[in-house]
Specification:
single chain, alpha/beta, two-stranded parallel sheet, 7 strands, 33% helix, globular
C-alpha cells in the first residue's frame, strides 16, 4: 500500500515574502522520505520565486527517488505563472497530466 503523501498547501498569495516559509515546508516534507503533494488551488497569486522553489524541489525529489506532485488547476494561478514563464508550452521540460505536475526532464534537457 503506497504511503500517503505529505501535503504542503500554498497560501492565497505566494510570492517572495512567502518563499522562505515555503522553502522550509518543502525541505521538511522532502526530509520525511515520503511522497509529497503541493496543493496550489488556494493560491490566487504565485510569483516566480515560488515557481523556482517548486522546480528545485522537483529536482531534489527526483535525485532522492521520491514522488513529488504539484496540483495545477486549469486556469489557476500556477497554470498562469507557468505559462508566463514558458513552462506550459509543448517544448517545456515539465510533465503535467490530469492536473498534476509530476516531473521534469533531466537537468540540461530543457531548463
Amino acid at each position: 500500500m503506497p504511503a500517503e503523501p505529505v501535503l504542503v498547501t500554498l497560501p492565497e498569495r505566494a510570492g517572495l515574502p512567502e518563499a522562505p516559509s515555503l522553502a522550509r515546508d518543502l525541505a521538511s516534507a522532502l526530509a520525511t522520505s515520503q511522497p509529497v503533494r503541493v496543493e496550489t488551488a488556494p493560491a490566487s497569486e504565485i510569483g516566480l520565486p515560488i515557481l523556482q522553489l517548486l522546480l528545485a524541489a522537483h529536482r531534489q525529489a527526483a535525485r532522492e527517488g521520491l514522488r513529488f506532485d504539484v496540483t495545477v488547476p486549469p486556469g489557476g494561478a500556477l497554470a498562469e505563472t507557468m505559462a508566463a514563464h514558458g513552462l506550459a508550452a509543448q517544448a517545456s521540460p515539465v510533465t503535467i497530466a490530469a492536473g498534476l505536475w509530476t516531473g521534469l526532464e533531466p537537468a540540461g534537457a530543457g531548463i
